Structures are given as structure tokens and as C-alpha cells.
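Please fill in the sequence for the structure shown.

STRUCTURE ENCODING:
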């Protein structure tokens, strides 16, 4: 949460305590909706970002590892064990296999990093929204406590007024 927002909420809490006047429920709901709307806007990513996230999630999986492992074992086994006239990537160099493997690595590594950066930004945005909502909840709790405190004061005044009225009536009779 930016420092400005924290200062704003702290200032708001001080105002509440000094004036002893709670914020209305409508105002509290409006603030919560603003926080949630801002978080929803920050969630949206471009189509390229979504592709990068998809690649990050799928390339970083056991399924992808198994596919690459089976492909490598099949490729190397074929080019070692197949009849010489059917081999297309000669042993021991496996130049074509190395080239393709390196190209896969070169293309997937930056995409994975990009996807992780996007996921990290989304996580940071969620964390910031959670902090704002928690601050808002603390403010709502303070507001509820102020309402209860005000009600308690009013009930005590009413009770004292009733007791005084009963004493006055008792003196008259």
C-alpha cells in the first residue's frame, strides 16, 4: 500500500476518534467498492501476457518434463539403435537434437520469466488490495465501536433521566 494511502487511513482514524462521529455505512461500502474496483482493473493483462502465463504454467509442469524426456530418449535411441540408413542425426554429435533443444530453451526461458513477472505483479496487486481491505475493515470495526459507545452513552442518559423522574415522582407522593 502506498504511503499516501496509509497516511490517509491513519488520518481518517484520528478524525473519527477526535470527533467521536462514526462514518456512515454507505461511505464505508463506497470505499470498499473503490478498493475492489481498482484491484479488478489492475488484474487485466494483455493477450500476450495471458499467453506468457499459460506457457509458464504448462512448461513448468511435470507433464512438459515427461514430454521432453520421452522426446529426448526417443530421438537419441533412434539415432543410436536404428539401422544406419534410417538415422538422421548421427551419433555421437546429435547436432540437430542439440540445436532443437537449445531453441526450445531459448524461447521458453524468457517466456517463463515474463509469465512469472506478470504473476508476481498480480500477486502484489492482490496483496495491496488485501491490505487496503484489512485497513478498511479496521476502520469499520472502529466505526461500529463508536456507534456502540454512542448508543451506550445515550442509554445511560435515558436511564439517568428515568431514575431522576422516578425519584421526583417518589418525592411528590
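FILLED IN BY: designer on duty
SEQUENCE:
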Amino acid at each position: 500500500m502506498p504511503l499516501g494511502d496509509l497516511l490517509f487511513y491513519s488520518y481518517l482514524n484520528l478524525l473519527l476518534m477526535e470527533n467521536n462521529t462514526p462514518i456512515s455505512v454507505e461511505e464505508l461500502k463506497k470505499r470498499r467498492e473503490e478498493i475492489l474496483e481498482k484491484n479488478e482493473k489492475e488484474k487485466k493483462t494483455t493477450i500476450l501476457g495471458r499467453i506468457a502465463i499459460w506457457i509458464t504454467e504448462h512448461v513448468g509442469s511435470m507433464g512438459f518434463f515427461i514430454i521432453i524426456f520421452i522426446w529426448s530418449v526417443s530421438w537419441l535411441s533412434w539415432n543410436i539403435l536404428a539401422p544406419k540408413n534410417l538415422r538422421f542425426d548421427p551419433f555421437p554429435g546429435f547436432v540437430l537434437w542439440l540445436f532443437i533443444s537449445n531453441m526450445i530453451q531459448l524461447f521458453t526461458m524468457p517466456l517463463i520469466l515474463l509469465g512469472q513477472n506478470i504473476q508476481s505483479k498480480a500477486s502484489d496487486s492482490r496483496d495491496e488490495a488485501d491490505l487496503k481491505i484489512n485497513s478498511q475493515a479496521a476502520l469499520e470495526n472502529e466505526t461500529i465501536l463508536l456507534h456502540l459507545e454512542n448508543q451506550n452513552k445515550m442509554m445511560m442518559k435515558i436511564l439517568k433521566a428515568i431514575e431522576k423522574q422516578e425519584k421526583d415522582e417518589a418525592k411528590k407522593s
